[in-house]
């Protein structure tokens, strides 16, 4: 291919991308919420004189992000106006801000989907998408959305890092990256989310983030990535891949947004991978923790930096694009839950039973794109791990938050943590002396 041909293709690609994005943004600038499951953003039976609650982001046409006070008032108004919604406080941050869980819909046989929004405080677009999604689901009147909510419980943590959001920082009030705390559970934020996952056992965990562009080969509107941790059940892994590649990314594409796989730099002309810069299987990252805990997990990221000259000139245009990309992708995720509820439930239910058989290796490293080294594979895991009294006293809460079953010693001297349980792989990741992010080192017990 000649240099002239390459330049021509690049300019054509740029013009097409600009035209498509301009059409999408022009169509959505007046109404910042996208319809979910083909439902109208405004409830058909809402009195004309009683408009639906709006976020600070919406009332400013995307010029600024919703404040903490506006979020509180917004959720309270949505809760009051709809019997489909319940909001409760599930924790308090180090600086005293509430961590909220919103429940929308649900029935006795419902599948459960958990949205975790803005774990990193300087990544606000997912939070805005989550807030308006709560409202739009709560007020939708179309039969399709009503059926969806009758069979689905949507759990939403609108701001998973309130202190970081208030300060516009990645970390929480203590500077800790909350998305690296899903094993140790040292933060109030991580502990609150672990309790929700333990108690509600979501089938799908959808984690909304943003990323900074670092290369001309890493400039997509949306990036997505499933659990790469090798302890993820194969059927759960397959459903997560389906969520990304057959629902979320195509939904973003249908709305005019480009997408790719998080962690991979790709040539915009050939689609070939240039470099891999992320995508590890660290168990302490939520998308991987989700897979280890038998949920279909997905990380999504929208690009922070402006992608056009128009966005550079108008920050509100950039911010609207980021939120609308999140909304388009989230619509795909909701469709996934609706259309594949049978396979999803079959995969997650079966995965929760596998550990009871207490067979097979446990992986302390590696990923689905990075085979584990022999030293990272526990080929013949122990029967369990013994904790002395001091260890159990220090880490009993973390084990309980993870939903790990423990047997107390008859004399009260410590505890025994068996591998024969639903959270089998997690036990070794928490307690094995070779695990990189263990909370303590248990004594391996090999006599079953």
From TrEMBL:
The keyword Cell membrane does not apply. InterPro entries: Peptidase_M14. The keyword Membrane does not apply. Residues 64-303 form the Peptidase M14 domain. Keywords: Hydrolase, Metalloprotease, Protease, Signal, Zinc. CDD domains: M14-like (cd06242). Residues 1-43 form the signal peptide. Its cofactor is Zn(2+). Belongs to the peptidase M14 family. This is M14 family metallocarboxypeptidase. It comes from Streptomyces solicathayae. The lineage of its organism: Bacteria, Bacillati, Actinomycetota, Actinomycetes, Kitasatosporales.
